[in-house]
Specification:
There is one protein chain. By secondary structure, the protein is an alpha/beta fold. It folds into 2 domains: 184 residues, 3-Layer(aba) Sandwich (Rossmann fold), CATH 3.40.50.2000; 156 residues, Rossmann fold. Helices cover 40% and strands 16% of the residues. Strands 3-2-1-4-5-6-7 form a 7-stranded parallel sheet, with helices on both faces. It has a 6-stranded parallel sheet with strand order 10-9-8-11-12-13, with helices on both faces. Helix 5 links the parallel strand 6 and strand 7. Helix 6 runs parallel beside helix 7, helix 6 crosses helix 11 and helix 9 packs across helix 12. The radius of gyration is 22 Å and the shape is elongated. The N and C termini lie close together (12 Å).
Length: 366
């Protein structure tokens, strides 16, 4: 069997989210490749050094051109289909399957946030996400959803039969990175951490307002560190937080590299995740891996991922968020309990498991 893979998401310098997912699956596919199971890896540009090395069972095909999945790759397939070496199944790890693909397709869908928060997307991006994803999921033989939440959304918004969508959780592994302290004046165990792109659906204004309320009620010296680059509508978020009494204790780091992020995870007192919607919620697993107690919202897939290893709050209720911050700050026994539960929960997620289950879906396509 020959499997084709769109690997462009992994062929980037800064690996986050779907890029990590794609790379980890490529690594598993390379390990699984043999005489009877071959892989053709399609790219717009030559493979970067961090991608798995090519061999006779795992080969790269660089196909250059515009509107890659919609025009360039379909035109290439129109010629390739007459060649001896061609895929029986084509796997797209990030929403978009090639248009007019002559091969059976499997597509992975990570979240449908664009249906829940359409105002956070540019009109052209929203059109592509809605319509190109629609084409992809309707054409696919099987669809991989990274959570039950994403599966429910797929069935609801695209009217898909339940049996067409298979849930396979993202994997997880701790990178071997030496923590490096950022330039900010932070002392270990004196801050709560949230890792996120700065955008409205991450619920940062309510988190900051709840933190401000907590500070007023306790006179705590705790700081709130929000690590992540500026995203959609970030200026409005900063403007609203500017009016808070304890704004000086809310630290926005901007983009941090992996070593700096590792230091933040290692030295935080606890982790908060107030998002209004997540298709999976990988930072929760990152927090577990750094032995951090977690409190998160009960929105989207977060309860599915964290299970019993987290405190939960209503993301729309500022008092509830403030209450959970207070509990984590003052109750050391609770923090220790959540740390242990987080470590146990983390055992349910691995890239090996994700890779095996994904490959099983692809190879069983009929």
């Amino acid at each position: 069997m020959i499997i084709g893979v769109d690997a462009n998401e992994a062929n980037v310098k800064n690996l986050v989210g779907v890029s990590v997912y794609t790379l980890k699956l490529l690594e598993f596919f390379k390990k699984s490749a043999n005489e009877r199971l071959k892989f053709l890896i399609y790219l717009k540009k030559p493979p970067l050094k961090h991608l798995p090395k090519e061999n006779k069972f795992f080969k790269y095909k660089v196909v250059k051109g515009p509107l890659w999945s919609q025009i360039t790759l379909p035109l290439y397939f129109a010629k390739e289909v007459f060649q001896k070496e061609k895929p029986q199944v084509f796997f797209s790890p990030a929403h978009y399957a090639p248009r007019f693909c002559p091969y059976k397709t499997v597509v992975a869908i990570h979240d449908l946030s664009y249906f829940h928060f359409p105002n956070e997307f540019l009109k052209k991006d929203l059109y592509k996400l809605k319509n190109w994803t629609k084409y992809s999921v309707e054409k696919a033989v099987k669809i991989i959803a990274v959570s039950k939440t994403t599966k429910k959304d797929l069935i609801k918004f695209y009217n898909l039969p339940e049996e067409k969508v298979i849930v396979i959780y993202n994997g997880w592994e701790r990178k071997k990175i030496k923590p490096k302290k950022p330039s900010f004046k932070l002392k270990p165990k004196t801050f709560a951490l949230f890792v996120s792109t700065i955008q409205p659906r991450k619920n940062i204004v309510r988190l900051a307002t709840a933190f401000d309320k907590f500070k007023k009620e306790t006179n705590s010296d705790l700081k709130l560190v929000i690590a992540g680059k500026k995203g959609w509508l970030w200026k409005q978020i900063f403007y609203e937080i500017e009016n808070l009494e304890n704004k000086k204790d809310i630290v926005f780091t901007g983009y941090v590299n992996e070593s700096e992020l590792a230091w933040l995870y290692k030295n935080a007192l606890f982790f908060l995740h107030p998002s209004l919607y997540e298709g999976f919620g990988l930072p929760v697993l990152e927090a577990f891996s750094w032995n951090l107690p977690v409190a998160c919202s009960f929105a989207g897939s977060l309860p599915e991922v964290a299970n019993e290893a987290s405190l939960y709050f209503d993301p729309l209720n500022i008092e509830d968020i403030a209450d959970k911050i207070k509990k984590l700050w003052e109750d050391k026994a609770l923090r220790e309990k959540l740390k242990k539960q987080g470590k146990e929960r983390l055992k349910n997620f691995s890239w090996e498991k994700c890779g095996k289950e994904t490959l099983e879906v692809i190879t069983n396509v009929k």
